[in-house]
Amino acid sequence: MRGFLRERWEIVALCVLAVAPLVVPALGGALGGQITTLFIYCILALGLNVMVGYTGLVHLGIAAFFGIGAYLMAILTVPMYPFQIGWFAAAIVSVLVTAGIGLALGAPTLRLRGDYLAIVTLGFGEVVKVTLRNLEQITGGMKGLNPVPPPGAGVKVAGIDLGLAFAIDPRWFYYLSLLALAGVVLAMRRLENSRLGRAWVAVREDELAASAMGISATKVKLSAFAMSSAVAGLAGCLYAGSLSTTADPNAYDFNRSIMVLCAVILGGLGSIPGTLLGVAILVGFDTVLAPWADSWIQQMNINPTGSSLLSFSGWRLAIFGLALVLVMRYRPEGLVPSRRLAAELHEGHP
Questions:
Q1: How far is CA 139 from CA 10, 64, 106, 134, in A?
Q2: Is CB count within 10 Å lower at the N or C end of the chain?
Q3: Which of 132-146, 164-178, 216-230, 329-343 has the lowest mean pLDDT?
Q4: Residues sharing a CB contact under 8 Å with residue 67, sequence separation 6 or more, in sequence order
């Protein structure tokens, strides 16, 4: 039984999460929206894990592709533009275009490594944010684009208006995001054990040795850029759809990229369950636990003056930093590391 849970944990987790809305009424309200956001960040982190975990390329601009996916989704669906091609068609187009932009970024940076690549991706993220802010005629500036119609808007199945159902019941988007997350996890599991996945790891371990064995490092890195960008674009589409708006460009800034990167490192580089656990801890702490704790403090009248020193949210960044310091000191491979990375970091130790 323990072996089954270790090897097929995703099936067990999917079943539990699928049943949860049926037995937890709160998931039909605000909590359901918070968990949906958690699923979306899990997808985003899995995309970053392709670059950082599998291929060993430092990427500090993943939030830019997250934002590009969200804005492409909005441009293709909001009433102010003539396209309005439908939510699912827009998601496909957005993912493909975002993957193409990832290739365009990756092609001129293939010779860069380490800090230099990190600086380029960081700069790209800032350029995207400023561009989204300044192109007000296209992106709406700081107001963003809205309303992004829900999936299935105007479509009726068995007498059910899907658009209306998505709009009034958070559980519909909960299940859509969960289904997308399950698809990404299964795809990553397949890629991890495929020829391409092994090539990613080979390039991460020793690019020169991989090239000597006939692996094209150029193609492998470009595929990592494209795959990471595409998955981030999918997360952006879901994010815009769940909020019915793109939000303002600051939602896709450097802080968002760092938070996702911290989640991947905390969980374990190159580890799918580790990445999901890292997001659950950091993002769940920020979107679920912190608001609940602040609400409880307010109800108990512990902080009548509203001081940030007595606010739980005011300490969240310090808690993040302390958690990362402790993990890097006592468990540098992460909470649930991949077997390969754990073996590398503990090589030579009893």
A1: 37, 14, 25, 8
A2: C
A3: 329-343
A4: 128, 129, 132, 236, 246, 249, 251, 252
3-state SS, residue 157 = strand
Say if CB 103 and CB 112 are below 8 A apart.
no
Q: CB–CB of 265/324 below 8 Å?
A: yes
Separation CA 127–CA 310 (nearest Å): 36
User: Residue 115: what are its φ and ψ, rounded to 5°?
Assistant: -60, -35
Residues 6+ apart with CB under 8 A from 249: 67, 129, 130, 132, 133, 139, 142, 144
In terms of DSSP bridges, do strands 160-161 and 156-157 run parallel, antiparallel, or are they unpaired?
antiparallel
Tell me what pLDDT residue 348 has.
Answer: 46
> What backbone phi and psi angles, to 5 degrees, belong to 59?
-125, 115
